[in-house]
Amino acid sequence: MHKVRRRTLVINLLENVYEMSIAVLLLCSFLFYRHLKKTKRERKLSVFEHAMYLITQIAVFLWLASFLLLTYGV
Questions:
Q1: CA–CA separation, 72 and 15 (whole Å)
Q2: Residue 74, pLDDT score
Q3: Where exactly are the transmembrane stretches of this chain (predicted)?
């Protein structure tokens, strides 16, 4: 009985860590996108910066779409 309870606690902890890591990654992506947007207003972006600008937009959009589909089954 204790093994099952301990296993459940570990699984819950891992799920919470996973969700927090997604939140941190999204926050970092958003902040990096804003930084690139500001840089784009000041000067022309390099090829790498432009690629990252597009990739962060696409990644956040894909995450949002998959989250909505998984959560609400739309």
A1: 19
A2: 64
A3: 16-33, 53-72
Number of C-beta neighbours around residue 26 at 10 A: 15
Distance in angstroms (rounded) separating the CA atoms of residues 48 and 9? 43
Q: Which residues contact 26 (CB under 8 A, 6 or more apart)?
A: 60, 63
Look up residue 69 and give its two tokens. 């589909």
Q: Where are the domains of the chain?
A: 2-72
Query: Residue 73 has what DSSP assignment?
Result: -
Residue-wise pLDDT tens digits, 14-38: 999 999 999 999 899 989 999 999 9
Rounded to the nearest 5 percent, the helix, strand and coil shares of the chain are 90, 0, 10
